[in-house]
Design the sequence.
C-alpha cells in the first residue's frame, strides 16, 4: 500500500483528478446507469397495477417460463461441455488442440443472427435435414427445441473461456501428484481439479445464464414468434413494444434486467463471502 | 389511455364471452372433438384485428361443432419475412399476408396449391386497404399528394420493400402516380421513386416498426402507411399529434389469405382452417375488419361504415400499367431490379 502514495497519480493536481473522476462517473451514468433506470421508470409510469398486469398477462408469463426453461437446459449443457473442454485443453496435449480452442471461440465472433440462420439452413424445411425431419414429424426450427439449440450455441464459450486461462495458470502439477499417489482420473477431477476452479466455473455459469436469458438475435431467427408459445422474454418485449403496449414492454424488460441484476448480486455476495479463499486461489 | 382501456375491456369481454360460450356448449355436447389449434402467420398491422377476430371465430366454431374448442395462435412480422419463415418450416395453418405475391412465393414451394387465389371470393382478399399519409399535426409542410413527398428536405418514413409488404404497396402507389402524370413513362417514374427514396431517412423492416419510428421516436415529416395503421396510430398516440392525409390517388391494397395445404393436411386441421378464413367474409368478420379500419368487401357492412372510409381513386395491381405482382416483383424488387438501382449509392 505504501507504494501507492508515491505513485505519479497521487501527485496530479486535484482538479485533474476530480475532472477525470467526473468524466468516468458521467460516462457510466449515461451509458449504463440511466438506461437501466429508464427501464424501471417506463415500466412503472402508469403505476404498480399496470406493471403487474403487464407481467401477469398470460403471454408474458409463458414468455417468462420459456426463458427460464431455455436457460435451465442450455446452461447445464454448456457447464458440462465447458468443463470437459477446458480439462482437455489445459491438462492434455493432443493434435487439433488449437482447432478445438478456435471452435469454442467461434460463437463469440460470429453474429448471433448467423448462428440462428445456420440452424434454419440445417433443420429448416428446405435445410439439409429438413425433409427427413418432416417425414418423421419432428419440428426443430420454430419450436422450443430450436430456441434451446440456438441459445446453447450462442452461450457455448462462456464457461470454457472462464476456465481455460485459470486452469492453464494452475498447470497440471497437482493432478500429476494425485495420480502418482494412486488416485484415479475421476477422483483426481473431483478432489483436485473441480475445487481449484469452482469460482471461475461459477462465474462462467452466471455469465452464460444472463446471456441465455437475454439472447435476442439467434432466437428471433429460429423462433417463428408464435405468441404465447415460442416467444422468449426478449422477443415478447419486442412484440409488446410493437403493439404500442409500452408499459408492458418495459415491465417485461425490467424483469429481465432484474434477473441479470440478481445474477450479479449473487456473484458479488459470494465473492465477498469467500474473498479470502478466492485471493488465495488467484495467487496460487 | 381511456381508449386503450375500453379496447382492452372489449377484448377481454369478447374473450370471456367466447370462453363462456365454448365451455357452456362443451357441457351440453359431450361429443365435441378434441381441441384444435391453428397458427395464423400474418403481417405486421393485423395484430389488433386478429386479437378481436379470433375469439369471435372460436365462439362461432364452437357453436356449430358441438362446443369444439379452437385456439388460434398468432405470429406477426414483415410480410416477406413471414412468408420466408413459412417456407422454412413455420407450421402455419393459414397465412394472412400483406399481398398476393408473398402467398405466391409460398405456393411456388408447393406448400399451397397454385389456385389459392380462386378458392375464396374477391381474389382471396376478404378486406382491402390503401396507402395514405400520416403527417405531424396541422400538416406543416402542406403535403397533399405524392409529388409533395419528393420535395427536397421532406423526410419520408416507409419500410423496406425487400421485407415489408406495406412498403411494396407504398412503392407501387408512388410508381403508379408518376406513370399517370402528363408525359409519364418508366423513365420519369424511376426518377420519381428515386427522388422519393432519397428522402427516406430510416428503412425499417416492417410497417409497425416504421409507425413506431414516426410516432414514438418522432422521426420524419410524413409516414406512408396502410390506412388502418394510420388510424390505429391516431388512436394509440392521440389525435392531438397527427393528421391523416388522403392523397387523391393511391393503390388498392389487397391483403391475401390462404390455407397452407401441406400443413393442414399433415396436422389434419383443414376444416377448421378453411372455416377460419371463410368466416372473415361473414358479416361479423367484416364488422371486425371495418372497426379496425380495413375496408370491408361485404356491401352491407361497407355501407354501414362508409363515413369512415373517404373515397379516393385506387389503382389495382392487376391494372395493365402495372401488370400484376409477378411482373412488378420481377421488375422492381428482385435482385438488380429498379429498386436496387434507385437505392444504389
Sequence:
Amino acid at each position: 500500500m505504501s507504494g501507492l502514495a508515491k505513485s505519479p497519480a497521487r501527485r496530479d493536481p486535484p482538479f485533474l483528478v476530480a475532472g477525470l473522476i467526473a468524466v468516468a462517473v458521467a460516462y457510466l451514468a449515461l451509458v449504463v446507469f440511466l438506461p437501466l433506470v429508464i427501464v424501471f421508470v417506463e415500466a412503472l409510469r402508469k403505476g404498480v397495477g399496470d406493471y403487474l398486469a403487464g407481467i401477469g398477462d398470460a403471454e408474458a408469463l409463458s414468455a417468462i417460463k420459456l426463458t427460464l426453461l431455455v436457460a435451465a437446459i442450455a446452461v447445464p449443457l454448456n457447464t458440462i461441455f465447458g468443463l470437459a473442454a477446458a480439462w482437455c485443453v489445459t491438462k492434455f496435449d493432443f493434435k487439433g488442440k488449437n482447432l478445438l480452442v478456435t471452435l469454442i471461440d467461434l460463437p463469440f465472433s460470429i453474429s448471433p443472427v448467423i448462428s440462428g440462420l445456420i440452424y434454419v439452413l440445417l433443420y429448416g424445411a428446405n435445410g439439409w435435414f429438413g425433409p427427413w425431419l418432416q417425414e418423421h414429424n419432428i419440428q426443430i426450427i420454430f419450436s422450443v427445441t430450436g430456441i434451446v439449440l440456438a441459445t446453447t450455441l450462442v452461450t457455448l464459450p462462456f464457461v470454457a473461456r472462464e476456465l481455460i486461462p485459470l486452469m492453464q495458470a494452475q498447470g497440471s502439477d497437482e493432478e500429476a501428484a494425485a495420480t502418482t499417489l494412486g488416485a484415479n482420473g475421476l477422483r483426481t477431477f473431483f478432489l483436485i481439479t473441480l475445487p481449484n476452479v469452482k469460482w471461475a466455473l461459477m462465474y462462467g455459469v452466471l455469465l452464460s445464464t444472463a446471456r441465455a436469458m437475454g439472447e435476442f438475435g439467434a432466437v428471433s431467427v429460429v423462433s417463428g414468434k408464435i405468441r404465447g408459445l415460442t416467444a422468449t422474454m426478449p422477443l415478447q418485449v419486442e412484440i409488446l413494444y410493437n403493439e404500442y403496449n409500452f408499459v408492458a414492454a418495459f415491465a417485461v424488460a425490467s424483469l429481465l434486467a432484474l434477473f441479470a441484476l440478481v445474477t450479479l448480486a449473487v456473484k458479488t455476495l459470494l465473492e465477498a463471502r469467500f474473498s479470502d479463499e478466492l485471493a488465495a486461489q488467484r495467487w496460487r | 389511455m381511456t381508449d386503450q382501456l375500453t379496447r382492452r375491456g372489449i377484448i377481454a369481454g369478447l374473450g370471456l364471452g367466447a370462453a363462456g360460450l365454448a365451455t357452456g356448449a362443451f357441457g351440453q355436447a359431450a361429443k365435441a372433438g378434441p381441441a384444435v389449434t391453428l397458427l395464423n402467420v400474418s403481417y405486421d398491422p393485423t395484430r389488433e384485428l386478429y386479437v378481436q377476430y379470433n375469439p369471435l371465430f372460436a365462439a362461432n366454431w364452437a357453436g356449430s361443432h358441438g362446443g369444439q374448442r379452437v385456439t388460434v395462435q398468432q405470429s406477426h412480422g414483415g410480410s416477406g419475412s413471414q412468408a420466408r419463415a413459412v417456407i422454412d418450416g413455420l407450421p402455419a395453418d393459414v397465412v394472412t399476408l400483406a399481398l398476393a405475391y408473398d402467398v405466391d412465393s409460398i405456393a411456388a414451394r408447393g406448400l399451397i396449391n397454385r389456385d389459392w387465389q380462386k378458392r375464396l371470393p374477391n381474389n382471396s382478399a376478404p378486406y382491402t386497404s390503401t396507402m395514405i399519409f400520416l403527417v405531424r399535426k396541422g400538416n406543416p409542410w402542406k403535403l397533399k399528394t405524392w409529388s409533395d413527398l419528393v420535395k427536397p428536405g421532406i423526410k419520408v418514413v416507409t419500410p423496406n420493400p425487400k421485407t415489408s409488404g406495406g412498403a411494396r404497396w407504398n412503392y407501387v402507389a408512388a410508381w403508379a402516380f408518376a406513370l399517370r402524370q402528363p408525359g409519364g413513362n418508366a423513365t420519369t417514374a424511376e426518377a420519381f421513386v428515386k427522388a422519393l427514396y432519397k428522402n427516406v431517412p430510416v428503412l425499417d423492416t416492417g410497417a409497425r416498426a416504421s409507425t413506431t419510428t414516426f410516432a414514438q421516436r418522432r422521426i420524419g415529416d410524413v409516414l406512408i402507411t396502410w390506412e388502418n395503421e394510420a388510424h390505429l396510430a391516431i388512436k394509440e398516440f392521440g389525435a392531438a399529434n397527427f393528421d391523416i392525409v388522403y392523397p387523391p390517388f393511391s393503390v388498392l391494397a389487397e391483403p391475401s389469405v390462404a390455407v397452407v395445404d401441406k400443413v393442414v393436411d399433415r396436422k389434419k386441421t383443414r376444416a377448421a382452417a378453411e372455416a377460419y378464413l371463410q368466416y372473415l367474409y361473414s358479416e361479423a368478420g367484416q364488422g371486425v375488419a371495418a372497426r379496425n379500419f380495413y375496408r370491408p368487401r361485404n356491401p352491407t357492412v361497407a355501407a354501414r361504415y362508409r363515413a369512415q372510409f373517404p373515397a379516393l381513386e385506387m389503382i389495382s395491381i392487376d391494372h395493365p400499367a402495372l401488370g400484376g405482382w409477378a411482373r412488378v416483383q420481377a421488375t422492381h424488387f428482385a435482385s438488380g431490379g429498379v429498386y436496387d438501382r434507385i437505392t444504389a449509392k
Notes: The domain at 54-278 of chain A is CATH 1.10.3720.10 (MetI-like fold). The radius of gyration of chain A is 23 Å. Chain A has two domains: 14-43, 54-278. Residues 41 and 250 of chain A are 9 Å apart (CA to CA).
